[in-house]
Amino acid sequence: MTSSDRPSQRLILEAGRADRQYWGDIWRYRELFFILAWRDVAVRYKQTVIGLAWAFVRPFVTMVVFTVVFGKLARLPTEGDAPYAVLVFAGLLPWTLASSILGDASNSVITNSQLVSKVYFPRIIIPFATVMVGLIDFGVSLLILVGVMAWYGVVPDWHILLLPVFVVLAVLVAIGPALWAAAMIVKYRDFRFIIPFVVQVGLYVSPVGFSTKVVPPEWQLLYSLNPMVGVIDGFRWAILGGDSPLYLPGFAVSMLVAAGMLWLGIHTFRRTERGFADLI
Amino acid sequence: MSDVVIRAEKLGKKFIIGHQVEYSAILGEALVRSARGLLRRGADMLRGRAVVAGDEIEEFWALRDVDFEIKRGEVVSIIGHNGAGKTTMLKILSRILEPTLGRVELNGRVASLLEVGTGFHQELTGRENIFLNGAILGMTRQEVLARFDEIVAFSGVEKFIDTPVKRYSVGMYARLAFSVAAHLETEILFVDEVLAVGDAEFQKRCLDRMSAVASAGRTVLFVSHNLAAVAALTRRGIVLKGGRLIFDGPIENAIAQYSASLSKGKAARDWGRGHHSAIISADLLDAQGRPTDTYEPGTPFNLQVEVETANMPGLGLELHLRDANNLPVAFYSSSIFSQTPLPSEGRHVCRLSLQPLFLASGEYSFDISTNSLTIVVDHGVANAIPFQVAASSPGGIAYDFKQSLGHGVLAMQLASPLRIEPASSEPA
């Protein structure tokens, strides 16, 4: 027997039958989740020369460029007394995490089409497993942030303790649309072209290189419809503390939008996943 | 608990397939056609339907009205031609595909082997891939750990276990992959044509392993073209034809039914078509030029293949001769071996007379394809000409040289009579 927690079970397969055991199945396949996540991490920097250092180089260079372009050339204001580089990096962290999850998770089902067409497991494991890669790169970037803050002598206050909450929020904001896109890509490959475009545009419509305070107050609430606004503001609030007060109504709007997209993502994925093997 | 572990009732599966009507060389027509296709795909998307390539859409039942029951501990073969619905059925039973109609009841933990090495990653080492593949097949880490040494020993790749599998030879890769699969232990096991890997010696070990699994009281559903293996491993056979179950009973009768349907099915074949060409018919001919399904070893192979091409110069006709284990035995390519591509337009009959082969007795088939530069298959028909060698006696005596003896599928023929002379007693 494969394991003691899998007793003989009775299973009915029928067209359109809602799978009552679905969430239980996810628990049973947790080892597969970990091993797929491990595989993605293990494979990511194979046969590269500098390996994990890529996780340092990309965000660091982006930070320098944004600081120069937005801070020095465009002379956009920072928040409070915070150095512009720290402001940028506090925005870049959640943005990189969310965009890499959106990019990887949305393509994950078709890149794993071999598995989908040959074995059964709850398909939702695949996009969730890709989150781990994003989180590891995020961990590395966090070290750069510590370095940059030390360089500028920025000392965080108690707000920093809430940073993990915002990390979870960044993941949730990304995984909702990613699940939806992953399900859609199986049917319509058009979305493969749409997602990178969304990520590209998103970098500029989200407050990554600039502060949210740049947006006129009367537009703040509308701007918060972009859920990344809430997440990035949350990060800056946690890292810069008193220099970056949180605009609560906007944050609430962002979180509502994120929750709606998460629901839509899971719902769409669950509804279509049993047909994946037909279409892939 | 009920003694029936698998019950299928009125099982059906429908696919939607698209056809390319024809290619147009005229830009205007091609534009109109792609505009029409774009409109249709757009409308499909609005209705939430899947995108199907092609100009015409057709429904196709891969499985229809299939009923059966399988009891605990039974070992059952599913046999049928390519496209009879065997794999579709296994995919439904293993929850990969959803049935369109009907229902299946499963009692017990299921594992399915539709392929060996599912999920193997080229960049990972043999060791890492064992754990990855084990998890994908539903084993826990503990179980893989417990059987790890056994798996490695069975595969015979101990020396390379910490080498990335992309450095493995095809044989090593297949052996490692099968070894993981062979150590999968569940109450119900579905196996699809996975024995066609590795060399003869390894295949024999796989078959032994399969029969050990089968005799251990577990329920096994086994799909294969290898009728010898099917007869050896199972006592009950289910025959599928065109998506319907046409026989369910003792394996000997099932094999007979299958063989009978093989010859009857030849009249009404439809192999579909590729993008630029279609293989319409293919036959093995006897010395009198009549279609046959038996080849006399040591005589020329006379084949007749009817092909249609549409505005595509340079396609070659290719043949793969395969043995009963579906392993390739011989290959012919018209574009390379004869530098003769197919005409670019129209319907043609190709007559091939190939040099004699002294084949061992048993089942064979020719896969036929049209091909650009032997890389891109345009229209491929697997198992296009199934045939058998009834008896093979290379020495002209009553000795049957069989495929199943494990000496290979070709008898070597002497170029001149064998000479045995006394060795010179004087040292040279």
Notes on the structure:
The complex is a heterodimer of chains A (280) and B (428). By secondary structure, chain A is mostly helical. In chain A, 68% of the residues lie in helices and 2% in strands. Residues 1-7 of chain A have low confidence and may be disordered. The two termini of chain A are 32 Å apart. Chain A is globular. With 428 residues, chain B is an alpha+beta fold. Helix content of chain B is 25%, strand content 32%. Chain B is built from nine helices and 17 strands. In chain B, the strands form four sheets. Chain B has a six-stranded mixed β-sheet, with helices on both faces. A four-stranded antiparallel β-sheet of chain B has the order 11-10-12-15, with no helix packed on it. In chain B, a hairpin with a 5-residue loop joins strand 10 and strand 11. In chain B, helix 3 packs across helix 4 (141-155) and helix 4 (141-155) packs across helix 5. The longest helix of chain B is centred in the first third of the chain and has 20 residues, at 27-46. Classes of the chains: A mainly alpha (280), B alpha+beta (428).
Write the layout of secondary structure elements.
The complex is a heterodimer of chains A (280) and B (428).
Chain A: E1 10-14, H1 22-28, H2 30-44, H3 54-73, H4 84-111, H5 113-118, H6 125-152, H7 163-187, H8 191-205, H9 220-223, H10 227-240, H11 248-272, H12 276-279
Helix pairs in contact in A: 2-6, 3-4, 3-6, 4-6, 4-7, 4-8, 4-10, 7-10, 7-11, 10-11
Chain B: E1 4-19, H1 27-46, E2 56-71, E3 75-79, H2 86-93, E4 101-107, E5 110-113, H3 126-136, H4 141-155, H5 170-182, E6 188-192, H6 200-215, E7 219-223, H7 227-233, E8 236-241, E9 244-250, H8 251-264, E10 277-285, E11 291-292, E12 301-309, E13 315-322, E14 328-333, H9 334-337, E15 346-354, E16 362-372, E17 376-389
Parallel strand pairs in B: 3-7, 3-8, 5-6, 6-7
Antiparallel strand pairs in B: 1-2, 1-4, 8-9, 10-11, 10-12, 12-15, 13-14, 13-16, 16-17
Helix pairs in contact in B: 3-4, 3-5, 4-5
